[in-house]
Amino acid sequence: MLIKFSEKLYYTKQRYMYLEPTIGYVKGENFSVMLDAGNGPSQVAEFLKELEENSLPKPSYVILTHHHWDHSFGAGYLDIPVISTERAKDSLIELSKLKWDDESLCKRVEEGTEIKYSADVLKKVYENYEIKIKIPDMPKSADFTLNLGGIKITCFNNDNSHSDDAFLIYIADEKVLFLGDSHAKNYYTQPMSYDKVKLRDYIDKISKIDFEYAIPGHGNIFTRNELLTYLEKEYIKMRWLNGKFIFVPWLDYFNLNVTYILSTTILEKI
Q1: Which of 11, 57, 65, 257 has the least CB density, counted as fewest CB within 10 Å?
Q2: Shared-domain flag, residues 182 and 236
Q3: Are 21 and 152 members of one domain?
Q4: Mean pLDDT value across the chain
């Protein structure tokens, strides 16, 4: 479902059971841009169909927030240039060298280099389709701004807990930050967790951006306050213990102020 945020900004509602990410769409006077490529042919086809039904022009470019398959593999079913970070391009080149049959996926799950749920969904999404990994045509090593005509988007390189090859995409005219999965935990750790240093850097970085709403790759839109409060709570849960950072989930039961008091008094003495 294509949701209208404003006359110039749209985004899709995802189906989590298929790991469909949010696809963003920014309409300029000169050209339009797609934010993230979706996870495969079905999501791409539905997105393009809804653009046509709403009399919106096809995008001229797609910008990837990061390399993970659910955000990037749809690019193989698009005939437009792909923009990403240099690191995301390198990651997709490595993914293109892998085999994607059931046996190979199962082996990577056993090795811990693939997540079982993700692998199961990928097999479902591509049950009747070929996996086509498109290598980005326009990799960027620095932040940049794209003028679409009447609206600009700025892409910030970002190394976060979830991926080290991300773009944070800022639409200043709408005061919207398109997150991808940059705010999320590392899914390959047990349990899933944040890197404390990267999380602090991330909070500090987005705090300096003048946004009112943040659109995540999965889930509902955040207000600025909701996102920053959530991330600060996650940061406070992390504490140094026995030479390594630990995650303290029971702190969720306390509000942010009480959590801070507890974490700086009780936890430091454990």
Answers
A1: 257
A2: no
A3: yes
A4: 89
Domain shared by 52 and 139, yes or no: yes
Same domain, 163 and 259: no
pTM of the model: 0.88
15 — pLDDT class (breaks 50, 70, 90): confident
3-84-138-140 Cα dihedral, nearest 10 degrees:
130
| 37-62 mean pLDDT | 97
Radius of gyration of the chain (CA): 19
Where does a domain end: 188, 204, 220? 220
Residue 239, domain extent: 224-270
- At 14, which CATH number? 3.60.15.10
Instruction: Determine the average pLDDT of the residues in 8-37.
Output: 94
The maximal CA–CA distance of the chain, rounded, in angstroms, is 62
Tokens 């949010």 belong to which residue? 22
How many domains does the chain fold into? 2
Do 239 and 261 belong to one domain? yes
Q: How many CA atoms lie within 13 A of 170 on its CB side?
A: 18
Give tens-digit pLDDT for 176-203: 999 999 999 988 877 888 999 999 999 9
Nearest in space to 36 (alpha carbons), one of 56, 7, 5, 62: 62
List pLDDT tens digits, range 214-250.
999 999 999 999 999 999 999 988 765 444 555 555 5
Evaluated on CA atoms 206, 208, 209, 214, the torsion sign reads positive
Please give the span between the terminal C-alpha atoms of the chain, in angstroms, as a whole number: 49
Q: Are residues 172 and 242 in the same domain?
A: no
Q: Which of 218, 216, 210, 254 is nearest to 233 (CA)?
A: 254
Single-letter residue type at 83: I
Do 123 and 242 share a domain, yes or no?
no
